[in-house]
Design brief:
The complex is a heterodimer of chains A (469) and B (501).
Chain A (H helix, E strand, L loop, with lengths): L1 H14 L4 E2 H8 L3 H18 L5 E10 L1 H15 L16 H5 L4 E8 L13 E13 L10 H10 L5 H8 L17 H27 L1 H7 L3 H19 L8 H4 L1 H32 L2 H15 L3 H20 L4 H25 L3 H7 L7 H6 L3 H8 L2 E13 L5 E13 L3 H14 L5 H4 L2 H12 L1
Helix pairs in contact in A: 1-3, 2-3, 8-9, 9-12, 10-12, 10-18, 12-13, 13-14, 13-21, 16-21, 19-21
Chain B lengths: L1 H5 L21 E3 L18 H23 L3 E2 L2 E2 L1 E2 L12 E10 L6 H6 L21 E5 L4 E5 L1 H5 L7 E8 L4 E8 L11 H11 L4 H8 L5 E5 L12 H11 L5 H7 L2 E7 L14 H7 L13 H13 L5 E4 L38 E3 L4 E5 L2 E6 L2 H7 L7 H10 L30 E7 L3 E6 L5 E8 L1 H4 L1 E6 L5 E8 L4
Parallel strand pairs in B: 4-5, 7-9, 10-11, 11-12, 12-13, 15-16, 16-18
Antiparallel strand pairs in B: 1-14, 2-3, 5-6, 5-8, 6-7, 8-9, 10-19, 14-15, 17-18, 19-20
The chains are: A alpha+beta (469), B alpha/beta (501).
Subcellular location (chain B): Nucleus
Catalytic activity (chain B): DNA(n) + a 2'-deoxyribonucleoside 5'-triphosphate = DNA(n+1) + diphosphate
Keywords (chain B): DNA replication, DNA-directed DNA polymerase, Nucleotidyltransferase, Nucleus, Transferase
């Protein structure tokens, strides 16, 4: 056994220049962890007598921390945590535990230290009043700069020995045995599948998490840069749609991406770039005007806002509820009663229109947008604010979408209760009605700016759907 | 000798046999107090106002009993103190006492009506550290279903009050219409069950009493220890998890020397009190939403979700579970619902550890018990109550100073586990019962994710004694709290990496 350990350690530490912890050694040789700690010591001892400094150890110390440690730790915490300083101390009538607060709580410290930090005045050992135990934690070929690297040993263990049943092998390694453990008998999860992504992500994690933040901020830009097959094909097919519509020819999704993918892609990015900036400006304008405006115009503004932003369904519905509330206020204030009625009327129409639209016969959608001029922002808003999701929807070949259907009922007390009911609806581009709808709306809503305006036909309809509310 | 022990592992290997250390069993009997109804039974249409009503209805008798005892025969300047039923019945110049709910009127407190009356599209200001107004504009009110009284007087300065706690005040209404209080009373600690009370009760019910009790008692060996840790803060990145590894090795009994390993064998359970994972801001601000939408994808989206933290946490749990049972409370940053009571983290998050959860539909707690936050239950006969720290962190915003233990004590004396919910703390709109009202005094009250480790014992009028434990964030302090289940003594274990730069 002892021989085994020497060969293994020599191979690992000296030849492969890997770090070996007592845990990895005990797993490798199937020995008790305490035995592994001794093996590490033996190997370390023989090696350093042979050639001092050839290998480097880290130690785990366990004991009662000394006074110096305590105070320094506390001082450190004070520095870091007390950001909010109160002017006067807080007094309480009932503080029976005041003495208890200074009660010394027994504590124990477990410190991992490099070999060079072990001895000496300011060293790890000096932090302890009493040391219960000390053992070698790991051996490595050279000085470890950052001890955090050692956690790699445990990561390797969890991967390499993942197939071992911990209940069977635990005793070998000296893990405290528990007779009461209850475990399901079913199969265990596939380990390889789980761990592989974990590892890769771990390595990339820091750069990745930053990446996410960045991605979220300029998700629009992401479209042109990302090389993901999905999106590029989608955008390509989108551009293809645009062309088809323009030329009025039946489109063939299969060969289009192949024929001019690069050009289509560039077009797409241009569209997004040119739209993303104006849209934010418009938003700002609206916000400032709505703050100063009176309630009634406010509604109009928030309408137009929802048109621009085209937020997820959820938000649109929130918006609507708020407006219901405000609208009823207006009615009470008798200032714009007729207006609110008119709005209600339009709303109802919209609901009908929308249903038809979803079914694919939405020829009257453009009409709706005309009807609603008074409420919607200037038509130019609609034109200049195409939204990526909708664009994508246009390019998707088939699928199901979730729509929120609103039902307004009068309850027993005479209140109007609006309920949202999610419903799934399948749609497909092969469906003729959906396709025909696009040119129709293009004709009415576009100002004939060529490809750009063609890019949002499917969208125009949905925008007006939001705009109504 | 001690020196020999310490250096026992700095020796050449011998043929020594290492005994297998058996872990102390844990008697565990959780309560389901904070489990919400599932599916259709759980809805959010209700008004929150009911919670205040229910709380007042529940706690008013308790505080009135205490107040009546103290004040009923009290005479001040020849005038008898009179009890008044409703806040609205208080007459000017008359010495009286009345019970009600405290409401703190603080200009800096977030106010939904303000948000709406201003611009509701504006993004939320950064959360405040404290709601306390530096210019002293804060007012304390006492309200019940009839009306509201503004409170003034010195007792307000010396006692901690937050919105939602139920108190009784004694004093007079002055010419300004303010109620000048002379004294105030809180409901104080509720009845505390005896140790093993609940387990005995169920045992008697099950076995018909008699000889079974003696047998039960025999099985109750000397209690072990319970380890409580909070704020593991796993973020899935390499480079800061070594202390976590040390904790794991310590709890498994692999690290350290034999004497320590034997002591670790006495740790019969690990409680994780929230914030195990740092990743995850479940709510996105409005600014982020439109952008998010533009990259809409169905199903798994690797750019929006990072599985590494949960995978790492799962691995941590799965390594420990063969040796030690775990109770897991969710916290503010964990993948559970945000509003209190947070429901258990679903075992599906933990593909490896879920083998230790009970089979669906089976009775009894699992070896790996994913529980609610707050949570209460019996461990080794003691009633334990704990949360992930949110109620205390929210009280902190109302009061001066940072005396976490005092906040915890007051919370128990108010008999309300989350007084500031639903005002400034998100919670479920309870309809039939305010679950946060503490009906039985716990023996141990622990609160996770606190700035530093603190502990104290508080006593009640009726002989109650509660161990308070503020559990620090492990990620910042490296500290784990060990609670001795015989004496309720605590001990801190600190994991450190020396000279870490």
């Amino acid at each position: 056994m002892s021989h085994n350990s020497k060969t293994f350690l020599a191979a690992c530490v000296l030849n492969d220049e890997k770090i070996v912890s007592y845990r990895s050694l005990s797993r490798e040789l199937k020995v008790h962890s305490n035995a592994a700690k001794k093996m590490l010591y033996e190997f370390y001892h023989t090696q350093t007598t042979k050639k001092p400094g050839s290998i480097n150890a880290t130690y785990l110390l366990d004991g009662v921390p000394g006074a110096r440690k305590e105070s320094s730790v506390n001082a450190h915490q004070r520095d870091g945590d007390d950001t909010h300083i109160q002017s006067s101390p807080y007094m309480s009538s009932s503080m029976p535990h005041q003495e208890d607060q200074v009660e010394a709580v027994p504590s124990r410290s477990i410190i991992l230290a490099k070999e060079e930090d072990l001895e000496g005045k300011m060293a790890a050992k000096a932090d302890f009043k009493q040391i219960h135990s000390i053992h070698i934690y790991s051996l490595g070929p050279s000085r470890v700069q950052n001890l955090q690297i050692l956690s790699d040993c445990n990561r390797v263990i969890s991967e390499k020995y993942a197939n071992e049943d911990p209940l069977v092998f635990g005793e070998t390694y000296g893990i405290i045995h528990n007779a009461g453990v209850k475990r399901r008998t079913g199969r265990r999860p596939p380990i390889g599948a789980q761990l592989v992504p974990t590892v890769t992500i771990n390595e990339k994690a820091s750069s990745r998490s930053q990446g996410i933040a960045r991605e979220q901020k300029n998700a629009v830009k992401k479209f042109d840069r990302s090389s993901q097959g999905d999106e590029s094909t989608e955008s390509t097919s989108q551009a293809a749609t645009a062309q088809d519509i323009k030329t009025g020819q039946p489109r063939n999704t299969e060969n289009k991406p192949a024929s001019k993918p690069a050009a289509a892609k560039r077009e797409q990015s241009d569209i997004f770039k040119s739209f993303s900036k104006p849209r934010t400006k418009l938003k700002k304008e609206d916000t400032s005007s709505s703050t100063s405006a009176s309630p009634a115009p406010n509604i109009a503004h928030s309408d137009s806002k929802s048109v621009q932003e085209d937020e997820p369904m959820k938000d649109a519905s929130e918006d609507e509820q708020e407006e219901d509330f405000m609208a009823s206020n207006n009615a009470n204030a008798r200032a714009s009663k007729s207006h609110s009625e008119q709005r209600a009327e339009q709303l109802r129409k919209m609901m009908e229109d929308e249903d038809e639209e979803m079914e694919g016969t939405g020829d009257d959608a453009p009409q709706v947008s005309q009807e609603s001029e008074s409420i919607d922002g200037p038509t130019s808003h609609k034109e200049t604010s195409p939204e990526a999701p909708v664009v994508l929807t246009g390019g998707r070949r088939r699928g199901r979408r979730k729509i929120m259907k609103k039902k307004t009922i009068k309850d027993e007390e005479g209140y109007l209760v609006t309920k949202e009911e999610p419903a799934w609806e399948s749609f497909s581009e092969e469906e003729p009605p959906q396709k025909q709808k696009m040119p129709a709306s293009t004709a009415t809503s576009s100002t004939g700016k060529g490809k750009k305006s063609v890019g949002k036909p499917g969208q125009g309809n949905i925008m007006s759907f939001f705009g109504k509310r | 000798m001690a020196e020999d022990d310490a250096n026992a592992l700095l020796q050449r290997p011998s043929d020594e046999e290492y005994p297998i250390i058996e872990r102390q069993p844990s008697s565990y009997n959780p309560l389901q107090t904070f489990h919400l109804a599932k599916g259709d039974q759980k809805h959010y249409q209700q008004q929150y106002g009911d919670m205040y009503f229910l709380r007042l209805a529940k706690l008013k008798p308790a505080v009135e009993e205490i107040a009546a005892e103290a004040w009923s025969h009290l005479k001040i300047a020849g005038e008898n103190v009179r009890r008044v039923d409703r806040v609205l019945d208080v007459r000017q110049g008359e010495l009286c006492w009345v019970a009600g709910t405290v409401y703190m009127d603080m200009p800096l407190k977030p106010n939904i009506l303000d948000d709406i009356s201003k611009d509701h599209w504006i993004s939320a200001p950064p959360p405040r550290e404290k709601y306390l107004s530096p210019t002293g504009q804060d007012q304390t009110m006492l309200e019940d279903e009839s009306g509201r009284l503004r409170l003034i007087g010195t007792p307000l300065q010396i006692s901690m009050l937050v919105t939602g706690c139920i108190i009784a005040v004694m004093g007079t209404e002055n010419a300004d219409g303010d109620f000048d209080i002379v004294d105030l009373k809180v409901p104080d600690l509720p009845r505390q069950p005896q140790r093993w009370e609940r387990d005995d009760g169920s045992a008697i019910l099950a076995n018909g009493g008699g000889q079974s009790k003696a047998k039960e008692q025999k099985e109750r060996r000397a209690g072990g220890k319970v380890a409580i840790v909070s704020g593991l803060g796993i973020n899935g990145e390499e480079g800061d998890t070594l202390t976590l590894d040390l904790l794991m090795e310590y709890l498994l009994g692999e690290a350290c020397g034999q004497s320590t390993q034997h002591e670790v064998g006495k740790i019969s359970r690990l409680i994780i009190a929230g914030n195990s994972i740092t990743e995850g801001t479940p709510l996105h601000s409005r600014d982020e939403l439109p952008d998010k939408k533009s990259s809409k994808k169905y199903g798994y989206d690797s750019s929006a979700y990072n599985p590494a933290p949960t995978a790492r946490f799962d691995e941590f749990l799965a390594t420990l579970l063969p040796s030690i049972p775990i109770t897991l409370l969710p916290g503010g940053s964990d993948p559970a619902n945000v509003s209190l009571p947070q429901q258990p983290i679903h075992p599906a998050m933990f593909p490896h550890s879920r083998a230790y959860t009970p089979m669906p539909g089976s009775q009894g707690p699992g070896w790996f018990d994913s529980v609610t936050n707050p949570w209460e239950g019996d461990i080794d006969g003691w009633r334990m109550m704990g949360n992930g720290g949110q109620p205390i962190d929210d009280i902190f915003k109302y009061v001066e100073g940072d005396e976490r233990l005092e906040m915890m004590e007051n919370l128990l004396r108010w008999r309300c586990g989350a007084p500031t919910a639903p005002d400034t703390l998100w919670c479920y709109p309870f309809q039939d019962k305010d679950q946060f009202v503490i009906e039985e005094c716990p023996h141990v009250y622990f609160v996770g994710s606190q700035p530093a480790f603190e502990t104290a014992i508080i006593d009640g009028q009726a002989g109650q004694s509660v161990r308070l434990i503020a559990v620090p964030k492990f990620k910042e302090t490296g500290e784990v709290v060990l609670l001795d289940m015989d004496t309720l003594e605590v001990e801190a274990v600190k994991f450190e990496i020396f000279n870490e730069t």
